[in-house]
Write a structure and sequence with these properties.
This protein is of the alpha/beta class. The protein contains 3 helices and 3 strands. The protein is globular and about 35 Å long.
Length: 97
């Protein structure tokens, strides 16, 4: 995923999260599956971190981030470290086997 500012990735992800917040309370979960994503550039990573921060701060949505393989290991580690510093249960990281 190599995105640029003009691709409006952050706005797209924010719209998805906002849409999820509008549905009934039992179904407010979404999964970002990075198992088939080979590359993330810094802009993409920052957009995803902004969405994670938004979910943590505003709650109302349960976000699951899924990784598989070793190609995004550094990003996965960064996400896990970031989440370990928060007491929020709104975001969870899983590994596919």
């Amino acid at each position: 995923m190599r995105t640029r500012l003009e691709d409006e990735l952050k706005e797209i992800l924010q719209n998805i999260i906002s849409s999820i917040r509008e549905i009934s309370a039992e179904n407010r979960s979404i999964e970002f599956d990075f198992s088939n994503t080979v590359v993330l550039n810094k802009y993409s990573e920052n957009c995803i971190f902004d969405i994670i921060k938004d979910v943590i701060l505003n709650n109302g949505v349960y976000l699951v981030i899924v990784f598989q393989g070793k190609h995004l290991r550094d990003f996965e580690t960064d996400v896990r470290i970031f989440l370990s510093e928060s007491n929020s249960k709104s975001v969870k990281v899983k590994r596919k086997k």
